[in-house]
Amino acid sequence: MAPTPPPVIAFQGQPGAYSDLACRSAYPKLETLPCPSFEDAFAAVQKGRARLAMIPIENSTAGRVADAHHLMPNAGLHIIGEWFQPVHHQLLAIRSATLKTIKTVESHVQALDQCRAASRKFGLKRIVAADTAGSAAAIARAGDPTRAAFASSLAGKIYGLETLARDVEDNHHNTTRMLVLSRTPTMPRRGTGKIITTFVFEVRNVPAALYKVMGGFATNGVNMTKLESYMLGGAFTATQFYADVEGHPADPALARALEELQFFAKNMKILGVYPSGRLRP
């Protein structure tokens, strides 16, 4: 029997990243483990160094996180929950800096895109960096009052930075959906609230295959909340679909829809059955 993993939750990024903030908000009793890449975060759970991993899957402004979609189907892990993390960017700088001294702002390219109005308002040259928390760390190390970063309030606290302007994102509804992954599945019982089932499949290379697959969900009244497609192995004719639907696989309607799907699809795999997140629309 494998030993019980330690009370640790892994995430991709540096301390103070939005994934770190999500981990601390959703699982305040677990220690957070920063990992250089998504692969490292998955491996931490696979090898028993962490009990869970918190992985971003999509953002309300920037769209899907492609790396996560590609890695999950073959990771051997199970989705056991979801978490919706509001993303509020802060304009951070060293304590001696002011809005008059800063000349540049650096961050992940998506954060820069999400804070265009603030960059224009304060007359800042935008500099693309690897990530938000890493930018905050770099600003703290440099000690340069002309440099600023867009990052989380947690990053500002960790690296001892001053917040020159709060919540500077263009869209205040900016939210990232995270998935919680475990080595052990924990399927909720039917009738315990709204349930989400996530699965992947490939369609057979025949006319109207996807239409026929989708027809089973429509005729059985199953609400599909997400459907993404992406190529497999760089081949234009090999496409995998990632889907979220409302319902439990044991529900008669969803059971019938999944049965019909398998007539026209192949390699269908359920990645997780889990409770709907508190902030899910």
What does this structure look like?
This protein folds into three domains: 8-85 and 174-182, 3-Layer(aba) Sandwich (D-Maltodextrin-Binding Protein, domain 2), CATH 3.40.190; 90-165, Periplasmic binding protein-like II (D-Maltodextrin-Binding Protein, domain 2), CATH 3.40.190; 195-275, ACT domain (Alpha-Beta Plaits), CATH 3.30.70. Strand 3 and strand 4 (63-64) form a beta hairpin. The strands form three sheets. Strands 1, 2, 3, 4, 5 and 11 form a six-stranded mixed beta sheet that branches. It has a five-stranded mixed beta sheet with strand order 8-7-9-6-10. The model has no long low-confidence stretch (mean pLDDT 93). The protein is 27% helix and 35% strand. The relative contact order is 0.17. With 281 residues, the protein is an alpha/beta fold. Helix 8 (209-219) runs antiparallel to helix 9. The chain has helices at residues 18-26, 38-46, 66-71, 109-114, 116-121, 132-142, 153-158, 209-219, 252-264; strands at residues 8-12, 31-35, 52-59, 63-64, 78-86, 90-93, 104-107, 125-128, 147-151, 162-165, 175-182, 195-203, 224-232, 235-246, 265-275.
